[in-house]
Specification:
By secondary structure, this protein is mainly beta. The chain is built from two helices and twelve strands.
């Protein structure tokens, strides 16, 4: 620990890191400067070493003077500017997909922007999404996705309680029915050739 004015620098190592389903924390190392001022606590220069070599870097700020209401959560607002590299969801939990995610996420409390320029190693999947949380609903202001079998551009709303009602407006282009059926594990009919 290195105390400073209104801040503490820390560097912690977790020698028992592992997957969530193993009841372990999937973080091997945490470095940051913890700073506080009034109702705001910040992690500046945050560096997380995630199991299997993934990295998350950036800044986080919890502001108790602003509220975030999301489903049953009613607490302080969270602002974040994070970049992540080689994050494999299956290293976090065994039944999650095996990918190497690289991208960035930004949040200013109720708004979230996620950019995955090449979510799959063959660059067949990319995503840009801009969302806004409003109580029991998420408004999708923009989603642009490139999939292996099509591209998607749209917007909409998703309810977070009850029947999870949703509405969507968008455009699906470049659909390759053969690749879509193959991706879903279905047989391609002979007449589709």
């Amino acid at each position: 620990w290195q105390p400073a004015d209104d801040a503490i620098d820390f560097d912690l190592t977790n020698h028992a890191a592992g997957r969530l389903d193993e009841r372990r924390v999937p973080v091997e190392q945490v470095r940051a400067r913890l700073a506080w001022a009034g109702e705001t606590v910040s992690l500046i220069g945050l560096e997380l070493g995630v199991v299997t070599g993934g990295r998350i870097q950036g800044d986080l700020r919890v502001d108790r003077s602003r509220r975030l209401k999301l489903m049953s959560y009613d607490g302080p607002a969270l602002d974040a500017q994070l970049s992540f590299d080689a994050i494999d969801p299956s290293a976090l939990k065994a039944d999650w997909p095996s990918l190497k995610l690289t991208g960035e996420a930004q949040s200013d409390g109720e708004r979230l922007r996620v950019v995955l320029p090449a979510a799959l190693s063959d660059q067949s999947l990319s995503l840009v999404a801009e969302l806004q949380v409003a109580g029991d609903e998420v408004r999708i202001d923009r989603v642009d996705a490139k999939l292996p079998y099509a591209s998607l551009r749209g917007s909409g709303r998703v309810g977070l309680t009850g029947s999870y009602r949703f509405s969507a407006d968008g455009r699906l282009d470049g659909v390759d029915p053969r690749r879509l059926l193959e991706r879903l594990g279905m047989q391609v009919p002979a007449q589709a050739s």
